[in-house]
Amino acid sequence: MLLEKLTTACGLPGFEDEVRDIIKAELEGHVDSLKVDRIGNLVAYKKGKKNSPHVALSAHMDEVGLCVTGIEKDGTLKFESWGVDGRLLPSMHVAVGNEKLPGVVGCKPIHLQKDSERKSVYELDAMYIDIGCDSKEETEKLVNKGDFVAFVSEFTEFGDNQVKAKALDDRVGCAAIIELLKSDLPYSVTGIFCVQEEVGLRGSAMLSKSLEADLVINIEGTICADMEGVDEDKQVTNLGAGPCLSLLDMASVYQKKYLEAIVKVAEDEKIPYQYRKSGMGATDAGKYHTGGTGIPCIGIAVPCRYIHSPVSVMHKCDFENLIKLVKAFIINGAERVIGK
Fold it and tell me: How far is residue 340's CA from residue 330's CA, in Å, rounded to a whole number?
């Protein structure tokens, strides 16, 4: 399964090679060109039978994780977080560096903690990664400062058509664009697979200066908090209720006419959808709509529970309906709204 292959791969910011290689292999023979720019973004182009409109589909390849910052005398590793809540880390199974050395995140056992420590969240500097070495010298033969540290999490299908995996943000977007580029579309489409989104939208910042498209559809995995104890207006999205459309976030305000156009397609085609009930966070759309001469954007996403963790959960129907909606919009809606 494509999504399993993509989520199992490791691709932290600046280390997206494994993910990029999978995408390139999947798209060979299905697109007219595949190019990698100097920062590492992968751009695929597929020429359509009609010249206009030209739609770009964008997702990011990188995932959240950790980075090695030091090696201790006892052979354990110190680290910093790239987008991971420290409360998730104790006892986590991880893979270190390109060789994916197995390790675990450790901290002082609860039996030895003081009362004050038991009542507080462990700081990152109180944790370490144990890779089974007994000395600094032994560890230095295997690990370097700056090596990435990725979650280890088995892709699992369970319950009512649901999936558990790491890196659903944003391998769901990558998988969706691959499927769309393999399908028969009337117009020219550029598929963009960005690097370094999780550390400041850096890949899209570079592409936004040269991208020529009439519209960017940015595809993400996004927050889902549809659980007990969370007020309804703060649940953001609901699992199984369809792909979600963004009204605004911390980097973008999405133009109303494009939002209305994709909603009309969803309703005409009877494809379920929902709105993202939060303005928090930011996506690569924030760079596209302010780059170059400014490219209008649509933000669409698959709801993911427990996002930015090794156990993100999505509903397969949301993923499948996202692909249906984007394809239907390109075929039936894009030409009606672009340039109007």
Answer: 16
Q: Which two tokens stand for residue 327?
A: 């394809």
- Asked if the peptide bond before residue 160 counts as cis, ω within 30 degrees of 0, the response is no
Mean pLDDT to the nearest integer, 202-218: 93
Q: Residue range 76-104: average pLDDT?
A: 93
The identity of residue 198, as a single letter, is E
pLDDT in tens, 146-192: 999 999 999 999 999 999 999 999 999 999 999 999 999 999 999 99
Q: Which among 4, 148, 170, 132 is positioned nearest to 68, based on CA atoms?
A: 148
What is the per-residue burial (b if ≥16 Cβ within 10 Å, else e) of 108-124? eeeeeeeeeeeeeebeb
Q: Which amino acid is at 290?
A: T
**Chain centroid to CA 316: how far?**
16
Q: How many residues does the chain have?
A: 340
Other CB atoms within 10 Å distance of the CB of residue 267: 11
| pLDDT value of position 92 | 92
Gap between the Cα atoms of 7 and 309, Å rounded: 12
Active site residues: 197
CB atoms within 10 A of CB 286: 22
Give the pLDDT confidence score for residue 118 in this predicted structure. 62
pLDDT of residue 229: 83
pLDDT of 80 reads 94
The Cα 189–Cα 212 span in angstroms is: 11
Decide: 221 and 166 in contact? Cβ < 8 Å: no
Full DSSP string of 274-333:
EE-----S--THHHHTTSTT---EEEEEEEEETTTSTTEEEEHHHHHHHHHHHHHHHHHT
| DSSP state string for 187-244 | EEEEEEEES--TTTSHHHHHHTTT---SEEEEEEEEEE--STTS-GGG----TTS--E
- Residue 126 — pLDDT band, cuts 50, 70, 90? confident
Query: Bridge partners of 302?
Result: 221
Distance between CA atoms of 9 and 46, rounded to whole angstroms?
25
**Residue 279 pLDDT:** 83
Q: In the structure encoding, which two tokens stand for residue 338, read together?
A: 């672009």
